[in-house]
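note to self — DONT lose this again. spent like an hour looking for the file last time. sequence + predicted structure for the chain T wanted, 310 res
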Amino acid sequence: LVALPDVAVGALLIAIGWFVARVVQRLVTSLLETAGVDRLSARVGMSSALGETSLASAIGMLAFVLVFVPALIAGLNAMGIDAIAQPATAMLGTMLDLLPRLLGAAIILVIAYVVGRLAGGVVQRLLEGIGFDSWPARLGIAKEGAIDPSYRPSRVANGIVVVAAILVGAMEASATLGFESLEVMLAETMRFGVQILVAAVIVVVGLAFANVAARAVRASQSPHAETLANVARVSILVLAAAMALRQVGLADEIVNLAFGLVLGAIAVASALAFGLGGREAASRMLARLEEERPGETPPRSSPDERRTSH
């Protein structure tokens, strides 16, 4: 009975705080909707990130929390029930101290997302203007019209720019919140993503060069053009794959050892095939090189040798 007046006062403070917070929430939401914040968020592409909640409603809810939390703390202190008031007050005080940092981190993420969407759109339009979407067909990587419009190279570049901007913003937001482990993890993710992107570019360029080299060899009309074209194509692809794996950093020693063994095996096989299997051809070729060596005149044959040759 002695505690009832304090409980009533605390409950009244909490109820008044809740009512004021609801009024502030609706007022802020209405003002933002009238100002066109939702249209702006839809224009920059934030509607998909917020889901069914509009940006004005999210900011209104934040205003509700900022008004209601102090009223809740005041009500719990007025109740005088230490077993409930002290832990709840400490917890709510910690939350209230964390709110500015959360707000700063949210602003950083929003700015990073907006900048990423704008930069990604500019990059996509520039790549479309220079005909980047037609490059896979020109280089022989993909057939004309076979690429899904959702996975056009310019659109993929747009998504990469957006993801990179969000990762940078998440790193800064983690630093703002004091999450050092999360910041380090995001930095490592960013570094590994850059390595994967460079490796993918190496593979694509290698595939393009392999197709160009294969077409050039086939166009030479040599007796074994198809075989030589396949050999050239496979060799360039193997080189590009080794460079990509080395760029990613996966098993550098294994890649180096395998690549060295393959080149050594090819060299030894070529030497054996030329030196043992084609000894006569090799001797004739060396004799011809000796005769045609610059700076020396071939020895004149004697009359007996000329008669023998005739």
